[in-house]
Write a structure and sequence with these properties.
Elements lengths: L1 H24 L7 H17 L9 H15 L3 E7 L2 E8 L11 E6 L19 E2 L2 E3 L7 H16 L8 E6 L10 H12 L3 E4 L3 E5 L2 E11 L1 E10 L3 E2 L8 H13 L9 H10 L5 H9 L6 H11 L1 H7 L2 E9 L5 E2 L2 E10 L5 H12 L4 E5 L15 H13 L4 E7 L5 H5 L4 E4 L4 E2 L1 H4 L8 E3 H19 L3
Parallel strand pairs: 3-6, 3-7, 7-17, 8-18, 9-16
Antiparallel strand pairs: 1-2, 2-6, 4-5, 5-19, 8-9, 10-14, 10-15, 11-13, 12-14
Helix pairs in contact: 2-4, 2-15, 3-4, 4-15, 8-9, 9-10, 12-15
This protein binds zinc ion.
Length: about 475
């Protein structure tokens, strides 16, 4: 008996060894990316049909849908409830027997969307209708396209038995559009060990199409920081028939005029200089010459002026900006109010100090009736990601293979994304929105009739898979 049992164990051990050996040597199954993109299109349609407008978000319904896919594909995952009706999904494909955060790549996308003004839409925003080659719907780009491409990448890596040198971690976040108690900031605070990574790919980049051709792949490597400052003017209240020089409305209006037209001196960062240097290779010469002049000391000021006049986005990339957004004063037509307030929405270049700028405000306005107060809702002031990291280099190398003739351009995002929170955790985070889009389609994000060209969605799924599988296969 003993002998036979021993032999049995020995045989089992041999079989196990043979299986393990066969697995180690088995060629990876060839990815079928055409089929994957077709499946992903079905998932995207289903995700658009789940209304996850924030507030309230309702991300738990999205999380449930994603879980079902991972369950079916045998990908181990975890659903974590952040608040009632709000869940995140975390999954990890591991390179070795233990998680290896020091080399891991995180794929992150948010499950919530902004709201809709239904009357202005020409289609049902939650039907995922396909019309003239476009899929329409809230979230069809922002950010359910990226979310779906991330799901598809995980699925294909798993199906093909990809040999990974780095862990690939999946995170579907909540509350990106409002940044409240279920946001990535809270996820990082509470569950960092579950998503720990060294690199991340997120929304915020762009694959720019012009004249029917991909011009460049813009990779967001840094972002501006949002602040709100309340400007308060006080004066004596009284009857409208007896105006006085200390009228709060007049003092506020003068202050808003001075601050709203004030141009903070330009201070282009390394990323912005590199952006213009790269872009100058593909732009028409009348604008390209100013892009090249940015680093010539005697022409830099004129270059800033030309570029800032050409595009509000370029202006915002070059300097801190101040936009008055709300004015409030008065309750009766014949009463001079004692107080008038304005909100300034301020976007600082990362690393700049809001206190310093507010110190400037006092001098610019030079009015003792005006006071400034910083609102508590400021953004995350994070350092930029490295333009020489292996992940950035992978994207640079794959760009012309995917889109012949296209170049990689680093971007300083003028808006805010989840990447800032990750960068504050020493993650090299990049915005790579992999879908080729023309300006008109990109500008529908957060607007009416958001839509994605079906063909671009397919290309983006394939591009993201190539970037992730290439980067994760070596270290
Ligand atoms: Zn988004």
């Amino acid at each position: 008996m003993l002998h036979r049992a021993g032999r049995f164990i020995f045989i089992v051990a041999c079989v196990m060894f043979a299986v393990a050996g066969a697995r180690a040597q088995a060629p990876m199954a060839k990815p079928d990316l055409g089929k994957l993109a077709d499946e992903a299109q079905v998932w995207l349609g289903d995700l658009v049909r789940i209304n996850s407008v924030n507030p309230p978000g309702n991300e738990a319904a999205v999380a449930k849908y994603i879980s079902a896919i991972f369950q079916k594909e045998g990908i181990s995952y975890e659903v974590i409830e952040m608040a009632p009706g709000r869940s995140i999904v975390v999954a990890r494909l591991q390179a070795g027997p233990l998680p290896d955060p020091a080399n891991a790549l995180l794929l992150v996308a948010h499950q919530d969307t902004v709201g809709v003004d239904t009357k202005k839409w020409t289609v049902d925003p939650f039907a995922a209708n396909i019309r003239d080659g476009y899929m329409y719907g809230r979230g069809s780009i922002d950010d359910k396209a990226m979310l779906t491409a991330n799901i598809a990448t995980m699925v294909e890596l798993k199906r093909t038995g990809a040999r990974l040198a780095r862990d690939v971690v999946f995170l579907a976040t909540d509350d990106e559009e409002q940044g409240g108690s279920a946001s990535i900031k809270v996820t990082i605070e509470k569950y960092w060990n579950k998503i720990a990574c060294a690199y991340a790919l997120n929304e915020g980049g762009r694959v720019m199409v012009k004249d029917g051709k991909v011009q460049y792949v813009g990779v967001q490597a840094s972002e501006k920081v949002a602040y709100n400052v309340t400007v308060t003017a006080t004066g004596q209240s009284g009857h409208g028939s007896l105006p006085r020089p200390d009228n709060a409305v007049v003092h506020l209006a003068a202050a808003v005029e001075k601050l709203g037209t004030y141009q903070v001196p330009a201070q282009p960062s390394t990323i912005t200089l590199r952006y213009f240097e790269q872009l100058s290779k593909i732009e028409d010469d009348d604008i390209a010459k100013w892009m090249r002049a940015l680093e010539q000391p005697e022409r830099a000021d004129l270059a800033v002026k030309h570029l800032a006049d050409e595009s509000p986005m370029w202006n915002s990339m070059l300097r801190d900006t101040i936009a008055p957004t709300i004015l409030e004063a008065g309750v009766r037509v014949n009463v001079v109010p004692s107080e008038a307030t304005a909100n300034l929405n301020i976007r600082l270049l990362p690393g700049h100090s809001i206190e310093e700028l507010m110190g400037q405000f006092v001098k610019i306005v030079n009015d003792p009736q005006i006071k400034f107060q910083l609102a508590p809702d400021s953004g995350e002031n994070a350092p930029p990601s490295d333009l020489k990291s292996p992940l950035f280099q992978t994207i640079e190398r794959l760009t012309p293979q995917e889109f012949p003739g296209a170049i990689t351009v680093p971007l300083l995002g003028t808006g805010a994304t989840d990447s800032a929170s990750l960068r504050l955790h020493k993650v090299q985070a990049y915005g790579l929105e992999p879908f080729p889009l023309i300006e008109n389609d990109s500008s529908r994000v957060h607007a009416d009739d958001e839509r994605i060209p079906v063909d671009s969605f397919h290309k983006g799924v394939v591009f993201l898979y190539h970037v992730v599988s290439d980067f994760a296969s070596t270290k």
